Amino acid sequence: LVAGLVIGPSGLGYIENREEIHHLSELGVVFLLFIIGIELQPARLWKMRHLVMGLGNLQLLASGSVLTVVVYLLSYLSWEVSLLIGATLALSSTAFVLQLLADRKMISVGYGTPVVAILLMQDMAVVPLLAYVSLLASPGLDLGEDLLLALVEALAILLTLVVIIRFTLNPVLRLLARHGSPEIFTASALLLVLGSALAMERVGLSLAMGGFVAGLLIADSSYRHQIIAEIRPFRGLLLGLFFISMGMSMDLQLLWEKPITILLVTTALMSIKLITILPLAHLFGYRGKAALSVALMLAQAGEFSLVLFALANSEGILEDELFQLLLMTVLFSMLITPLLERLAYRLSPPLQEQNTTEA
């Protein structure tokens, strides 16, 4: 993020057009979600279903509702635009949080489990939010019909992916491993990830969700460890580009002009999300410090917030000044996240580390 700020248009200006690397950098999140999908495995995800559908939905509803009311009461905006801003800020950063959890090996341990569940639900919520932006931009649009059509298309492509990956992938990988070169195996692994991601994008879902589904479906494959080894270097490099492109979005001029406003809005956002997520985590069985750790990990806004706000700005729903303020708020909340993650880890370390410390 800092590197992107330095070399971007608001810094030294080495790169004027961030779109040059933005599309490539999005693939870093795709590869990250692919590896997360492999590590979760279908059986483990099925055990998490009450967290994904229950805790995930409640978090979006609670955080989104409170943020919507606050935005509506403290601004000149209509309730429709306030709802868009509130629901979008309720999203957290899948790329940031999952990377931090992966570094700690906390994806499926302790507070990592509910955090991943909530993030998965948030990623699924991006589709109706995109449709809502289209509705605001074109008042005559039939939102219900569009959502139903998108859902049917998404289910069709998902079933097709399941059939192809489940019944053809293992024999193909076995053949490549026996008779092909390492380069061909690597290329095939990349094709699997990118093909799944692009298929999902064609029906309105996110690229990242396509990567996650592909990883989930080959989690039981005998070649899962080899595929992870081939994909991991690409994930690291492209994810680095993703954060650089996010940093390039920051507007230093706005920061100099309104530092107090940005600080207050960022603090308010993260405080509201902490307050709304904490009792929900407690409700689902995560007590005390563990519940606080869940809330700390999800207090920021996310990369999909940037995408939705940029789309709303291009459609004329958000004015440029408001868009830049929201952009800076999202990015500053992401910058603070590593500090909150350290606090979350100290509050609720893995059980094994606790036992070692006690010994």
Overview of the molecule:
41% of the residues are buried. The protein is built from 17 helices and no strands. 81% of the residues lie in helices and 0% in strands. With 359 residues, it is mainly alpha-helical. It has a single domain (2-343), classed as Na+/H+ antiporter like fold (Up-down Bundle). It starts with a helix and ends with a helix. The longest helix is centred in the middle third of the chain and has 37 residues, at 143-179. It has helices spanning 2-7, 19-40, 42-47, 49-74, 79-89, 94-104, 112-137, 143-179, 182-202, 207-217, 224-247, 252-257, 259-283, 288-297, 303-314, 320-347, 351-358.
> What's the CATH first level?
Mainly Alpha
Tell me which CATH architecture applies here.
Answer: Up-down Bundle
Largest sheet: none
- Cα-atom Rg, whole angstroms? 21 Å
The share of residues in extended strands comes to: under 5%
Poorly predicted residue ranges: 352-359
Roughly how many Å apart are the termini?
39 Å
**How many β strands by DSSP?**
0
Can you tell me the number of structural domains? 1
Helix content: over 70%
Q: Treating each run of at least 4 consecutive H or I residues as one helix, how many helices?
A: 17
Overall pLDDT metric = 81
What is the fold named in CATH at topology level?
Na+/H+ antiporter like fold
